[in-house]
Design a protein that fits this description.
Blueprint lengths: L12 H13 L12 E6 L5 H12 L3 E6 L7 E2 L12 E2 H11 L2 E5 L7 H5 L2 H10 L3 E3 L7 H14 L6 E6 L9 H12 L3 E5 L8 H4 L3 E2 L3 H5 L4 E5 L21 H4 L6 E3 L12 H4 L6 H21 L2
Parallel strand pairs: 1-2, 1-5, 3-4, 5-6, 7-8, 7-10, 8-9, 10-11
Helix pairs in contact: 1-12, 2-12, 3-5, 6-7, 6-12
The chain binds N-acetyl-L-norvaline and phosphoric acid mono(formamide)ester (CP).
Length: 315
């Protein structure tokens, strides 16, 4: 594996999952693999889980880590070409990426979409410029359109808890007070289909995701039908892709609550976190014994460590 930005960088998901469970059982079996190697973690946006779990993963492999909050701790970075840089941005991504590539053997990048211009966001220009100019492997820590380390942790979690070979996995849209990226649902849909699950996606009209990501999943607008017989419910808000970046629905009937969960097959509840209680999910659902959110977050170390282990083999 050279870079890790999506499921398409994974040659064999079954093999990667098998390795993930070995790493989960024995996190220190490759503790010298990354000796004298440095991972740089670059954050254009906030993070709790990704920031801590990815550092921990790198350190479990013997790597050093450096964390930089871009635009806050560093110079503000220009990402467009051909502009006269006479505003507040003192450095261009082209030089910044090349310089960081001289200090780091692997670079993790978190860069959310601006949710204003769909073509600009979906071109993934920030992570792609790091790939182009840094000269070292780049790992997505959530880009404009995907969050593969999260999706991999989600699949590890489902594999851990599933009771049937092909569980029915529901990706359920839920309300939110702010416009959020489509990255988590885009990525989750891709990985869940690749894992061979029966994937159902439910959302109000207008929240259709880009079909590139949902191929192989069933879109079910009837929420009650969609929740019916689900083994796992992955709740998540996202803003509209069609009416780009807009909030179209605030109906709390879409909250992942006990009424919706009662329609399922005693389903496990999942969410990537951070989550807003009683908006996305009710207290009783997230606090129930069926909630997997903490284990999912724990598995973020496993997913990151498995990916870094794989990349370290090739450098
Ligand atoms: C982000 C999102 O929805 O993409 C990060 C999730 C891991 N969430 C928020 O901004 C609340
Ligand atoms: N799930 C996740 O990526 O969390 P953070 O935004 O806190 O990193």
């Amino acid at each position: 594996m050279k870079h890790f930005t999506s499921i398409h960088d994974v040659a064999n998901l079954k093999e990667l999952l098998a390795e993930a469970f070995l790493i989960k059982d024995n996190p220190f079996q490759h503790e010298n693999l990354g000796k004298h190697r440095t991972m740089g973690l670059l954050f254009f946006n906030s993070s709790l889980r990704t920031r801590l779990s990815t550092q921990k993963a790198a350190q479990n492999l013997g790597m050093n880590t450096m964390v930089l909050n871009i635009n806050e701790d560093s110079w503000k970075i220009e990402t467009e070409f051909g502009v006269v840089m006479n505003g507040d941005k003192a450095e261009h991504i082209k030089e910044a990426a090349a310089v960081i590539g001289r200090y780091c053997d692997i670079i993790g990048v978190r860069s959310f979409p601006a949710l204003k211009d769909r073509n600009a966001d979906y071109s993934e220009s920030v992570i792609n410029q790091f790939i182009q100019y840094a000269g070292v492997p780049v790992v997505s820590m959530e880009s404009a359109t995907r969050h593969p380390l999260q999706s991999f942790a989600d699949i590890i979690t489902i594999e851990q808890y599933k009771k049937t070979e092909r569980p029915r996995v529901l990706l359920a849209w839920a309300p939110h007070c702010r416009a959020l990226p489509q990255s988590v649902p885009n990525s989750f849909a891709e990985w869940a289909v690749a894992a061979g699950y029966e994937v159902v996606i439910t959302h109000p009209e207008g929240y259709e995701l880009d079909p590139v990501f949902t191929r192989g999943a069933t879109i079910e607008y009837d929420r009650e039908k969609a929740y019916g017989n689900a083994d796992f419910v992955y709740a998540k808000n996202w803003s509209s892709y069609c009416n780009y970046g807009k909030i179209l629905c605030e109906d709390l009937a879409w909250t992942c609550n006990a009424k919706n969960m009662a329609l399922t097959s005693h389903a496990k509840f999942m969410h990537c976190l951070p989550v807003r209680r009683n908006l996305v999910v009710s207290d009783e659902v997230i606090d129930s014994e069926n909630s997997l959110v903490i284990e999912e977050a724990a598995n973020r170390v496993v997913s990151a460590q498995t990916v870094l282990w794989k990349i370290l083999q090739s450098i």
